[in-house]
Each structure stands twice: as structure tokens, then as C-alpha cells.
Amino acid sequence: MTAGRLNGPTEKCGVVGVSLDGRDAARPLYYALYALQHRGQESAGIVTHDGFQQYDHVGMGLVGDAFGPGDLEDLRGSCGIGHARYPTAGSVDSACAQPFSVSFKSGSLGLSHNGNLVNTDEVRADIEAQGHAFTSDGDTEVIAHDLARNLLDGDLIRAVRRTMNRVHGSYALTIMHDDTVVGLRDPEGNRPLCIGELEDGYVLASESAAIDTLDGDLLRDVRPGELVVLEPDGQGFETYQLVERENTAHCFFEHVYFARPDSVIDGSLVYEVRRGLGRKLWEESGIDSDVVMPVPDSGRAFASGYAEAAQDDGADVEFAEGLMKNRYVGRTFIMPTQDERERAVRLKLNPIRSTVEGKTVTLIDDSIVRGTTSTQLVELLQEAGAKAVHVRIGAPPIVAPCYMGINMASREELIAADGSVEDIRDTIDVDSLSYLSIDAVAETLGEHRQDLCLGCVTGEYPYDIEGETTDREVNRPVIGDRDGEPAHADD
Ligand code: AMP
Q1: What is the CATH number of the domain that holds 223?
Q2: Does the annotation count 456 as an active-site position?
């Protein structure tokens, strides 16, 4: 079973929303999308509202390419939402570009979604049975149409609550209903969303780095199951805890790989978490070597924590850059064929001979997925004259796909899906290989295991997914129960 079987492409994106006092929202949204560019490079878009009508622009590619001269000026109004969409192999498709916008009887709606529903097909069938036609196969349109129908009653809070009672899975959303911007995080808080204060208004964003870019202050994370409603003209915000669950399901991989190191997510600075994971890696599986080096850029914070812990323990080890990155080469991970991915790793990274030749090297990265990067890099280091190469990985082995929005490859492609660590060591041909334990991840994040989504490293998911096992008693919404309230609704 692949992630693709669920609901079309998985979506690991960046979302933002602002409400400002008088100033046009388009430019701050554009800058915020730049800050969230790492969360999605396939397309970018903005929807604004000036109190009378909705304006939108979406384009393919990076934020800088998706908007041309004059596009921002055409987006009028002091409130709006934005989206940067994550690319998945073979899914470059303008029909999926967001924000998704729709006009309906009682107004207009724009939606930016990060995450992935796990019951899209059921909800879609239910809506289709009532005569509605869909224009895309994405889950965001399902949320948009359900919400639009619930909004016919006119009460936004009630409408959102009803939609939360029908959709199941991972969603961090910024939504614009006429000129009201809201933020919503799924009851398990799987993907991040935070709220910040600007000099002249408020901002909702996937990551706090976007708030920093706008010279704002991070106020806090949006709580799992919480709806945040920004008042018009940036005057303030109101919050509603619509659903409460006993356990969260924060994605640990946001901290390990996906988020920017300078963002604070669920109360922790990502850079410090990665350094902490690196320190734990030394404690669990440190090995003597002449030099510790990161895979740039993903392994850098891990390697600095690892080297620091090693030096604290009296190890005579140097922390050095041994691989130079060509920053003009795009992402290798999503290239469609193995051959291209291998070629791209070689284009992207080149060894610095003086740090490698004649040395025993510990190479540190955040994760191994298919094994392409580590296999190629180990070969490069050996060719550059390394005496021995040890690999240390700042996450547990990835054994199962992600259905919640991170493109992780299918089980067949995952090098750890059915091989032992010793098998992997043998395949990538290194002197030693160790991963971090799941307990070390939970401890460093300061969370209980039950409050994390660990699906990709345990094969047990916090959501009810067809053909997979779950690690908890999931609180599943009732399809077709349009008037039902969530089990833990807080009026
Ligand atoms: P692989 O080469 O397939 O083993 O992938 C591992 C490399 O890709 C590591 O350097 C990671 O930093 C990076 N990586 C891990 N997960 C992802 C992802 N979901 N998307 C893009 N890159 C990733």
C-alpha cells in the first residue's frame, strides 16, 4: 500500500494567513511564503479579500516564479491567506495548486491545507451522493465543499465544528471566509501551526520563521483541535477549542528533517532539538573517529550536537565540513528514477579532500529513506581516501510510509522496511552504522511516545488507515452525521 493510494498526492506544505490594519496583505503574505519555501516548491498562491470581493493568484514553481510583476498589486485587501505546495514525484499538477477557492451562495471561501486526510474517499462519496461534482482528486476540495455547505447556516464556528466531525486525518489550515481569516489545527495537532503578532495585525503560519520574517512576535502554537479567528483589520483574535483529545500526534519528522532549524514548533526550537538528538546519538552509539562531518545541510545541527557531546566526554575528535554542497542543484529526493537520484547526489555534493584523506570519518545525517544519499556519499568519501567511514543517523529507521503529508516513498523503496540495521550497513558498505532510538527521540522532544506520530518508524499510525494498524483507540468521525457534534466538543 502506498501513500498515493490514499487520496492522491500527499501534501506537506506551508500555509499562512494575515489580518492587518489598513495595509494590503498581499506583500506580507508573499514574504511569509518565501520564509516557508522549504515546505513546498511545486506551486504558490495567495487569496485576499477587500471587504467586497475575493482576489486570487496561484502559479507554478517557487514563490519568486509563481508571481510576476503586478500580480501582488492586483491582490487587494488587508486580509488573506497563502500556500506553498510540496512536490511529490510525478504529481506536478496546476489543478492541485492552492489556496483552493470557491464561491457559494453565502459568500466566498479560500483554503490553504497542510497535511493529508485519511477518509477523503468516504467524505467525497457522501458529498457526491448529494449531487456535488468535484474538480480535483485532492482532499482540500473535500474540506472546502463540506465547509461551504455547512456555512449555508451562516455560523462559521458551528460550520467548522461540523466539518471537523466529518474529516479525519492531518490538517493545519488557514481559511478565508469572505473577509475573515481563521486558522485550524486537527485534533491530534499533526502538522504545525502558530500565531504571531505584528505591529499592525496578526498572522497564522506553519512555522514561526515566517512570523520572524514579518518582524512579528510568536505568541504561541495553535492548539490541537483549536480554531483561531482573526478579527478584521488586525484588531485581535478569538480562539475556540472545538475538539479535545487525550493524546496528540505531533509529527516527530518535522523536528528531524522538515521544519526550518530557526522555527519554534510546539514550544521547541528545532535547531536545539536537532542538536539534542545529535548529543543523544553520541550517548547511544558514539564511536571514536578523527573527524565528525555532517551531510549538508540536513545533518549539520545533529553533527554539531554529536561532536560537542563527544568532546565533552574527552574524545579527541574534530568537527569539520567534509562535503561541499552545490546550492544550485535542486532537490534530489523527488527525482523520478533511481539513476537520476544517484547522479543528482553526485552533482550536489563533493568531498573536501583535506578533511577526509587518511582519516577515520563519522558521517552524520538526519535520516535514511531509500539509502541513495548515504550509499553515494560513503562511496565519495572512500574515493577521497577515508580510512574508515562510520554513519550515524539522528532518527530511527524509516520502516513504513507516511500517510500524513510527508513524501516518504513506498514500503518497497524504503531500505529499512524489511532489512536489519546490519543488512543496511552491508548495503551502503560502511564500517559501522547506528540509528537513534525512538525513546531518545521522544525524550529529546519532551513528549510521551503516545503524543507523537511515529507511523513511519513503527508502522503503527495514530489514525485509522485502511490496511494499516493503529497505535491508539482512534476517535473516528461519523460519516453522514451532518448534525453530529464531536465527542469532546467544547461549547
Ligand atoms: P535517501 O537518499 O532516500 O536515503 O534520503 C535521505 C536523504 O533525504 C537525507 O539526506 C534526508 O535529509 C533527506 N530526506 C529525508 N526525508 C525526506 C523527504 N521527505 N523529502 C525530501 N528529502 C528527505
Answers
A1: 3.60.20.10
A2: no
- Total domain count for the chain? 2
Q: How far apart are CA 182 and CA 111, in angstroms?
A: 10
Nearest atom within ligand 1 for CA of residue 407: 19
Residues contacting residue 345 through CB under 8 Å, at least 6 positions apart: 332, 372, 373, 376, 377
List residues near ligand 1 (CB under 6 A): 257, 295, 298, 333, 365-374, 406-408
CA 365 to ligand 1: nearest atom: 10
Q: 120 with 6: CB under 8 angstroms?
A: yes
Q: Is 117 helix (H, G, I), strand (E, B) or coil?
A: strand
Cα–Cα distance, 191 to 164 (Å, whole number): 15
Convert the pLDDT of each residue in 192-206 to its tens digit: 999 999 999 999 999
Are 294 and 404 in a shared domain?
yes
- What backbone phi and psi angles, to 5 degrees, belong to 391? -115, 135
**Same-domain check for residues 233 and 311:** no
Instruction: Output the CA 274–ligand 1 centroid distance in Å.
Output: 15
Q: What is the mean pLDDT of residues 235-261?
A: 96
Probe ligand 1: pick from 334, 340, 373, 379, max atoms within 8 Å of CB? 373
Contact 116, 404 (CB under 8 A): yes
Does some domain include residue 7?
Answer: no
Structural domain that includes position 61? 14-249+476-485
The Cα–Cα gap between 83 and 431 comes to: 44
Among 257, 274, 393, 407, name the best residue to mutate to test ligand 1's pocket (greatest count of ligand atoms within 8 A of Cβ).
257
Show contacts of 147-152: CB within 8 Å, 24+ apart: 147/109, 147/111, 147/175, 148/102, 148/104, 148/109, 150/482, 151/104, 151/106, 151/107, 151/109, 151/177, 152/104, 152/105, 152/106
* pTM confidence score: 0.93
What confidence category does residue 331 fall into, taking pLDDT thresholds of 50, 70 and 90?
Answer: low
Cα dihedral across residues 310, 315, 320, 325: positive or negative: negative
Same domain, 214 and 168: yes
Residue 253 C-alpha to ligand 1 middle, in angstroms?
Answer: 11
Choose one of 88, 256, 277, 333 to mutate for the ligand 1 pocket test, by most ligand atoms within 8 angstroms of C-beta: 333
Q: Do 244 and 373 have their domain in common?
A: no
Cell numbers standing for residue 253: 519528522
Residue 464 lies in a domain: no
Residue nearest to atom 9 of ligand 1 (CA): 367
